[in-house]
Amino acid sequence: MSKILSLFFIIASHLFVSGVTSKNITIENKCDYTVWPGFSNSFNDFGTTGFALEKGESRVILASPFGSGAIWGRTLCSRNSTGKFSCATGDCGSGEIECGKYGQSPRNMTLAEFETNNGTVDLYRVNVVYGFNLPLLVVPQRSPYGRVCSRVGCDVVNLNQACPYDLMVLDAEERPIACTNPCESSSGCTSSSYSESFKVPCPEANFDFSYDNYVACTGSIDYVITFCPSFTPVPTR
């Protein structure tokens, strides 16, 4: 028992001395409608897996200084007569507002991905390999080394209008609410009408399954993730 306590003390002391702290990720909704942020993280790195964010609201979550995960926005969400929760875009298949620790891989959504490493190098990117549903912007907030890290995003207005028609996800009124990427896996994912239509308006976004195109930022930093940085009126019931 004494050995276990000693080991715990050593680990705790190391974490304290090395300055291990949580990262603040501010999520703000500038869309003209409610967005339900969804989270995918194997080690509960974000402390939550989903909640509702009304128009104009923001919320700060504490992310683990060591870990990886993804954040996206779900739209047009509701519960059916049996109480099952679902969303027209970005649905994670849990049947609840929280996506759960191991939710299914969503489709038709704009994705922000992170790999954090306290005090050294963070990796992040915006990925549209699973589709696009709303503009999203990731902006690093601070670096103890005085460096300015790059913002990344796919934050143009109403990009769903640029989606090839056969890849559009339409609402009940035949309006485009998302765009589906025809590449469902890493095999055979090549240039397509989908990627070509997004490359010009979203040059900062990632379009494939490769792991070598993250943006790197040195130091322990915070982030602001914004849905609809520019006003984007689309989803309504």
Structure commentary:
There is one protein chain. The protein has 237 residues and is mainly beta. The protein has a single domain (21-227), classed as Thaumatin. The protein is 10% helix and 32% strand. The protein contains 2 helices and 13 strands. The protein has helices at 2-17, 193-199; strands spanning 23-29, 36-40, 58-63, 66-79, 85-89, 111-117, 121-127, 136-140, 152-154, 168-170, 176-179, 215-218, 223-227. The strands form 3 sheets. Strands 2, 4, 5, 6, 7 and 12 form a 6-stranded antiparallel sheet that branches. Strands 3-1-13-8-9 form a 5-stranded mixed sheet, with no helix packed on it. Strands 10-11 form a two-stranded antiparallel sheet. Strand 4 and strand 5 form a beta hairpin. The protein is globular, with a radius of gyration of 19 Å.
SSE blueprint:
Elements: H1 2-17, E1 23-29, E2 36-40, E3 58-63, E4 66-79, E5 85-89, E6 111-117, E7 121-127, E8 136-140, E9 152-154, E10 168-170, E11 176-179, H2 193-199, E12 215-218, E13 223-227
Parallel strand pairs: 1-13
Antiparallel strand pairs: 1-3, 2-4, 4-5, 4-6, 6-7, 7-12, 8-9, 8-13, 10-11
Please describe the structure with a list of short key phrases separated by commas or semicolons:
mainly beta, Thaumatin, 2 helices, globular
Brief account:
Pfam families: Thaumatin (PF00314). It is built from two helices and 13 strands; from the N terminus they run H-E-E-E-E-E-E-E-E-E-E-E-H-E-E. With 237 residues, it is mainly beta.
The first-level CATH class is given as: Mainly Beta
The fraction of residues assigned to DSSP E strands is 25-35%
The CATH H-level homologous superfamily: Thaumatin
- Compute the number of structural domains: 1
Question: What is the global morphology?
Answer: globular
SSE pattern, N- to C-terminal: HEEEEEEEEEEEHEE
> Mean pLDDT, rounded to whole units?
78
DSSP E strands, number = 13
- The second-level CATH architecture is Sandwich
Classify the secondary structure makeup into a structural class. Answer: mainly beta
